[in-house]
Please model this.
Amino acid sequence: MSTTSSIGRTSSSPLGVLGLVSIVVVLAATAFGGGAAALELGDPGPLVRWSLPILRTLHDAAAAVTVGALVIGAFLVPETTRTTRRETLARLAGGAAIVWFLAGLGRMLTDFASLAGIPLTDPQYLSQLVAFVWDLDSTRTAVISSVIVAVIAVTVPLAQSKGALAWAAAASIVALLPLALAGHSASSLDHMSGVNALAFHLVSATVWIGGLVALLVVRPSLGTHLAVTTRRYSSIAAWCFVLLVASGLLASWINIGGLSGLDSRYGVLLILKSVAAVVLGAFGWWHRSRTIAGLEAGAKGAAPFVRLAVGEVAVMAAAMGLGVAVSRTPTPDSAQVAPQNAIVYDLSGYPDPGPPSSTSWLTTWQIDWLWLAVSVIAIVVYVRWALRLRARGDHWSALRTISWVLGWVVFFYFTSAGPGVYGKVLFSWHMIEHMGVAMIAPLLMVPGAPITLALRAMRARKDKTLGPREVILAIVHSSYLRVLANPAVAASLFFFSLAIFYYSPLFELAMRTHTGHVLMMAHFLASGYMFVWVLIGIDPGPKRWPPLALFVVLLATISFHAFFGVILTQSTELLAPDYFGRLDLQWMTDPVADQRKGGAIAWGVGEAPTLVLAMAVAWQWMRSDDRETTRRDRKVDRDGDAELDAYNRHLAELGREH
Model:
């Protein structure tokens, strides 16, 4: 038997290994954990109970292959005159998306049967499904995800360019996120942290597992590009491993409520899953230190890499099966569950923090793990880029680094400290949080010039691959950014979206739902960053307006902002009345008065950042005049002010004509 044929058969086996191992493990682990045990009341029957973990496993495996194939095809595979690579990955992603959709649909149907406590064959099943499918979180999120997946399944086989695959990859990751709203973590006491941890866990595991499977499938067509493609995948896998472990630890701690929870069937499955994660970490280290290095050194044959990678897929499949079984296994008694009949918790997702004190600014904390992770990643990546420049002898201002780091520290403070905690129940503190996220943090982040640093620190890919640097350049030069970076548009988004948001049902939706709250914070930060950037940013982008025009935009925007604050100070009707009016805080008897206080904060707190922005625009104006004066002086030194001489001659000729 030839080595080539052996490798060919091995490279075609990852899909089978992923499916077979994951199904076997999930069945065994579910039986051990009791995830398919008969219920005393409302038992849907053994078909539903055993179908749920199997369909969930098929769903997760197909999702991983879809996302992995799209990521590999869009960002990692070098582009050559041969198109078979992306065609193979597009077909793989399209086929996997069909399985993903069907498994998701089947999972939704069986999940509803489980929640309703009726078999699939019950005569009333269909009528109840139609009546309640949108009212239940788990079935509603499954429907949303399935709709996105259906679009991907139809369009991906036709979209074979790297740009089209990149958009499809983004859409496939978005399809995963609604699923984080269901599961043990979503029903724990710390609901928001559980959802955040599960979202990071799903995305990192999917990209990591699916990426390796897709890499093995497309390997025969990579040829000499196998080494560089594998190295690029290895970098993504390292990030996925860190996020997977960190989010897994957080979710596990939330679900077991303490170390005593490990002494249970649920805890045993968690331990086995942790062992699988450690083994996968060892696989990754071996790849980076041995197999990839051997490929880059020109080692003949890919047999060692393929054998190790297929073994890694088997462990990944086992971990996936264990993860599904864990989600079906009852949590231990030590787990902290949501309080009963607590209206503050039901509305906000957090317990009543009690009345704020004079020290709450520093002593009250409730870590928002999503924004902590985003802040840490933003700081770590930026500092790595700066150190990379320094290592090769290039200069990067330490003040810019400090400004960027402080900006994210400020952002984390306003989302996790007193303003973030009390901002969930008091409008006045919410407005403090808003001002901090939308005005103060961007004022520190923008001078850090992250785009300039990224373009200088990252190498351009010469094989026409869509790498991080190429993505940034595409965004910077896109027509979308030209529109958004227009100062009038950025200012309008900054103010009018603010007014529309607070005086529409969106505000209440953002306060009551986790997804809405996350999108609200992201919008505050993005709109504030864009507004500050068009005024004082130095990063490359569309052509800047003259300083005088920027002054006019700044003054107009702040005038509208102050007007918004004044309107709130005189308000008599409560914004989001079904939220703030129903919290029933014993220590807050007048929510309308607190809202007026929030208006005063919006009016007053916005003045200091405005003054800083005005001073920065004026300073840039003066620097622009100085540069223009210096340029003109140099021109005069070169040609003796030929322009002035020509103008004088023109005036003299006009005088002679008259």
